[in-house]
Amino acid sequence: xxxxxxxxxxxxxxxxxxxxxxxxxxxxxxxxxxxxxxxxxxxxxxxxxxxxxxxxxxxxxxxxxxxxxxxxxxxxxxxxxxxxxxxxxxxxxxxxxxxxxxxxxxxxxxxxxxxxxxxxxxxxxxxxxxxxxxxxxxxxxxxxxxxxxxxxxxxxxxxxxxxxxxxxxxxxxxxxxxxxxxxxxxxxxxxxxxxxxxxxxxxxxxxxxxxxxxxxxxxxxxxxxxxxxxxxxxxxxxxxxxxxxxxxxxxxxxxxxxxxxxxxxxxxxxxxxxxxxxxxxxxxxxxxxxxxxxxxxxxxxxxxxxxxxxxxxxxxxxxxxxxxxxxxxxxxxxxxxxxxxxxxxxxxxxxxxxxxxxxxxxxxxxxxxxxxxxxxxxxxxxxxxxxxxxxxxxxxxxxxxxxxxxxxxxxxxxxxxxxxxxxxxxxxxxxxxxxxxxxxxxxxxxxxxxxxxxxxxxxxxxxxxxxxxxxxxx
Length: 474
What we know:
0% strand; mainly alpha
């Protein structure tokens, strides 16, 4: 199968990159490249192999080969810009975050954020999170992730070496566990996975330590498990839709279903009539097959939503959903199934989005922007990794590298979730920590870049030896 040679080459690039990072002691599991790779592997390696036979029948050998080839050179281009682009240079010129921290602000915000998150999850009355409500009520209940923001605030505050607060840490861990459980019950895989990833990151970056390989393996398994349970519960026809039914479902859950949720095993039982077009890889093939021959480019109009989404329709009643028309037109023009103007279907992945933006040129431009932005954010964190603000910011941000790959477009993470739920709190803590810091001593002056040993901590909280003290990522 010559059309799969590019898929295997893509896997080889990621494998070699991993070996290089480990061999040179540059491997940092919280670097954005790894979650970017997680999404990339699932769509452009696992799905490309699992759905290969369907893809050949549905789209033809030539297009499938071209799609796999693009996935290869797009990944190489992303890594080239990530390492040699301007991200690191720009990060050096950004203003430093506050070295202090405002615990009173955290204590004031967290109860509100937790209550708000429980309301969004349907846990404070009004039925389930999916019940019909008024437009105002729907808007109010559109920010479930604020509960996880509160959890990370509590964890990073409780883990400060210069001023540990065990009660804050315990409250943060409990909030995180509750958040993951609630959103597994609500059958939302993204929220459940984000809860796992942000918690693990917060626990380790606050202590300037790398997790062991065993912890990384447990984290990967836990993330895959909560995703599989969420998907399985969503599609379950055999258990009562109640808490007791959910507990029974979890007790009977077949761990092998993880392979289905990861697309390692096809979920169509080999039925030749099953279409995998709703999968991200299927959407990518559709965009390559349809745009621009049957439907036009959107020329990046979808990215305007990062700004327009903040303008309420009360102010702008005729506000368009930028880029959506071209997205729907492409599906209508090229889908195997009947689609109409009300279609609100599956994601197309980062390469499907960049094809819709402008083909190969659009792919080069957008991936360069994504690589630059991720490197900039990561370098900024590394340069200020001893400050609590930077630790909070990175724990609540780094998972978006995965969201960039698997969504409708590389910025969907911002206007779908982070820009509303996390960004305002990040800004509030910047201001509060600058002007209303705790009286405890702030961290010492920052090194030029990279991880540094944390300030001395009480013996019962002293970090264990696995620290980022050598081989800082470059």
